[in-house]
Amino acid sequence: MTATLRERIGSRSTAIQYFIDEGSIRYFADSIMDPDPRYRPETRHPRGDCTGLVAPATFFGSATGLRGIPAGDARTMSALDLPFPSGWANLATGDEFEFYSPVTAGMTLMAHERLLDTYEKQGRSGRLIFYDIEKVFARSDGEPVLRRVLHCAAREPLPVRSLDAGPTPEPVGNGLELPHLVVGPVLVRHLAMFATATAEFVDIHYDADYARSVGLPGPIIQGLYKTALMARLLKDWTGDSLRIRSLSVQHRAMDLAGNTLTVGGSIDTGAASARHGEDIICGVWVRNQAGLVTSLGSARVAAD
């Protein structure tokens, strides 16, 4: 299977269309429990004019044409229709975002997906196939607004087991600590709302029976959900999501629905940019209610 996948490296999907509407922006914000009035059209635009409403940093709209895909189908993670066997679980292991210009209500974005790399590895849970997908979102005039690289792993079904987080990684950053953000409990309802807002319907996040059928003890929180919480922390700290230049995240362990998550970070004072008054480099992390750091990231934000 890996050889077949490797033959697909560099292949591109057909164009995918994404609509940015004010309702989805609010739904996304509600799903991550962000009370910021800037994401509430009725608060910001009492007359109903929502054009120009800036979306949260990691929100890129709802895709058309990807709905109605069966549970377990790899297309729930990607439009590339990758050849994984039925019943394999596809998991997000990391995310990289580069932000070029604002995503606002009323936009229609076009994106192509491209398979960057794939390889096989034996993990603690068995055989894993890792793959990386690049997606560049552009306006109708072709100008890119953001780039995302999604890191994924596919694994064969396993007996139901508890989640083993492994050793707790150390958060990155050695300078000024950012104010912590506590979010939760993150219920299945929030995960279903998040899936609806983003049109990324991966059944392990809201279907308990399906999650158990692939060896998970229950629905797990989306990796992109935790990435969105990191972006929310940075937005709250800087006062403006448009100051976030890039965000790179590794998901080291899974979190079950029902967890209360704490998000934090600190400035990396050792980075050259921090010493020269340019963009600020921050380490960010997500910790679950058991005290385990399950996601680690690095962000670059514009200085004042």
Q: How much β-strand is present in the residues?
A: 25-35%
CATH topology: Thiol Ester Dehydrase, Chain A
Determine and state the CATH class.
Answer: Alpha Beta
Mean pLDDT: 84
Task: Give the structural class.
Answer: alpha+beta
Number of domains: 1
> DSSP helix count?
7
Quaternary: single chain
Q: Termini distance? A: 49 Å
Strands side by side in the biggest sheet? 2-1-4-5-6-3-8-11-10-9-7
Weakly predicted, low-confidence segments: 45-50, 65-75
Can you tell me the overall shape? globular
Cα-atom radius of gyration: 19 Å
Helix/strand order: HEHHEEEEEEHHHEEHEE
Major sheet characteristics: 11 strands, antiparallel
CATH-defined superfamily: Hotdog Thioesterase
